[in-house]
Design goal:
globular, mainly alpha, about 200 residues, 9 helices
């Protein structure tokens, strides 16, 4: 159980805390609305994500006894993690060069923004149909389909914390320094590489 929780938190943090539309929109909205903007964005994010998680959980529970399916899920999920880690390396390089100050113009409220930026983010969909699918299968194997609902808060709390934090810092005119951002990205790259290789090895052997 502890290993499963560590796996969930590690892979969740690599997605939640990485640069992306939700993070940048939370910065923009936070300038005017403070930490509540990020918190409400996380609510909108959850409104789309939780039904998707349940849908994937119900769908995969019907074929979870198929050994070929489990092996392919592990291999695909592992490859996806390695690809995501390479994308983070590109973000790290851009950060070190001083590139990529992104400016967003947002007209909607934070809940709608969180919902739409989640639903229309192709990386989010790819993550849940590869890495997320592997996580859900591991959870079902550990405790059944209801375990997915029970453990979902272990995944989603980090979105609320992170988006609220960046909105708060934005409202105070602060932002994370380049060295801190680079350090976070390096940690995530290592985590994604580790689990990517681990998933592939466990599926092949």
């Amino acid at each position: 159980m502890l290993n499963l929780i560590v796996e969930i938190v590690s892979l969740t943090s690599s997605g939640a805390l990485s640069p992306g539309p939700l993070t940048f929109s939370a910065i923009v909205l936070g300038m005017k609305k403070g930490w509540k903007a990020g918190f409400l964005e996380a609510v909108g994010h959850t409104l789309f994500e939780f039904p998707l998680v349940l849908l994937i959980g119900v769908g995969s529970s019907h074929i979870i006894n198929n050994e070929f399916f489990l092996k392919m899920t592990g291999i695909v999920g592992g490859l996806a993690l390695i690809i995501f880690s390479i994308l983070l390396i590109q973000d790290l390089i851009s950060l070190r060069r001083g590139d990529g100050e992104r400016i967003l113009k947002i007209s909607g409220g934070p809940i709608l923004t969180g919902f739409l930026f989640t639903a229309l983010n192709p990386y989010f969909i790819v993550w849940w149909t590869t890495v997320g699918l592997k996580l859900i299968i591991d959870i079902i194997l550990a405790g059944g389909i209801l375990f997915v609902i029970f453990l979902y808060p272990i995944h989603v709390w980090m979105d609320y914390l992170w988006l609220s934090l960046v909105s708060y810092l934005s409202s105070k005119g602060r932002k994370l320094g380049v060295k801190i951002q680079a350090g976070i990205l390096i940690i995530f790259i290592i985590i994604l590489m580790y689990y990517g290789i681990k998933f592939i090895i466990e599926s092949v052997i």
